[in-house]
Amino acid sequence: MQSAVQALFKIMPFLFGIGFIAPLIAQTMAYWGWSPPLGLSPIGFGLLIGGPWGLYATVRGRWI
Amino acid sequence: MTDGIGNPRDLALSGAAAPAAPAADTSPALDTPRTRGDGPAIPLGGDATLDRHTRIALLKEERAIARRFEGGKMWIYPAAAFTCYAIWLSFFPLAIMGWLNLPLAFVLSTVFAVGGYVTSHEAMHSNIARHGTKWRWLNEWTGKVSTIIIVFPFSMARLMHLEHHYHCNHPEKDPDYPDRANGPWHAIYKTWLNRQPGVDGSIHIYKRILAEMGTREAADALKDTVRLQLIFMAVLFAMAWSGYAIEAALIWWLPRHIGLSYIRFYLSWAPHHPREDQGRYGNTRLFKSRLGQIGSIGMETHLVHHLYPSIPNHRTKEAYYALRPILEKRGVHCPEI
């Protein structure tokens, strides 16, 4: 149980990227009436940003 | 090292004042010739140069004054904590129903996040109700509800805060030491940096200190932290994927981050800068804040809190002016606040 929780927290930035940042980007774009580029759906664009960003934070240990 | 009056750790735990340590005070006030008319007949250069008899006499006088400011209208802390928590909780259903002014809710949530630490802080020192008293549950629940917004469980917050009191400014043992910074902008940057997942910031220091403590309370505090963080994430993810990401961000996520940075800056960096002195009278500084006593959450007179944790936050300024002549005799730089 403890190791599972530790593993979960280790990848938490990535989960946060897809679990929160992606829909936040999508809904913010919809709120301001912005269209995603390349014919992507808002959530697709959100995942494209949030996923790699969360992965970067997981690997690098920093969001910026 | 104390004046031989007791163990500072035990006294701080009970919420009583820790006894004086003959601090090697390096306050600039020591280098300044005393010009006030109420100064001692024989110049006392500061705590390090005071003889033992003078130090004990001053300490007794200091304690007698401090005792006058302990307690008071402590009901304001639980009242504020429960009211703000109830209002904040109501934001979630109101947001989902579309009945919430989000910008206003965002501002209020941020204020609650910062203010919650103040109310929990009184509970950390058992200032609302002591162990074994009738209202002890109120003390504990005030602490518990107050820090939910900042996702910092009361059990963890209390343990770490008391460790901060025991080892103030110690590079290894003070859990707040990572907030040390060269200036205000650096301090603001550190409040962000120390929350980054891979940086050896606050949570990593907390975990190390908890492991060193090795007590049941320490293990429980860590479990509470894991639970609260998982709940926080679950709520954010669930709201976000249900179409309420902006609401979740403005009610909880952003207020938490802004609140934590404000708390770290004003409650940790500002009163302890430059974190070089570990002595009783030198580990905390008195300063005039541009945001005043309320804007700085009472931190202008944080030294009074470190000397006497039983004095509630709203009375530290009043206590400061009463204690000021003694503090000056101790060599503490005492500005107008």
From TrEMBL, chain A:
Keyword Transmembrane annotated: yes
Lineage top rank: taxon: Bacteria
Entry keyword annotation includes Transmembrane helix: yes
Keywords: Membrane, Transmembrane, Transmembrane helix
Membrane spanning residue stretches: 12-34, 40-59
Protein name from the UniProt record: Uncharacterized protein
Biological source species: Pelagerythrobacter marinus
TrEMBL record, chain B:
Stretch list, region Disordered: 16-47
Domain of life: Bacteria
Keywords assigned by UniProt, alphabetized: Membrane, Transmembrane, Transmembrane helix
Matching InterPro entries: FA_desaturase_dom
Ranges of residues in domain Fatty acid desaturase: 98-334
Record-annotated membrane-spanning stretches: 75-96, 102-120, 230-254
Biased composition (Low complexity): 16-32
KW Transferase (keyword) present: no
Keyword Membrane: yes
Protein name, entry field: Beta-carotene hydroxylase
Species of origin: Pelagerythrobacter marinus
Lineage, uppermost ranks: Bacteria, Pseudomonadati, Pseudomonadota, Alphaproteobacteria, Sphingomonadales
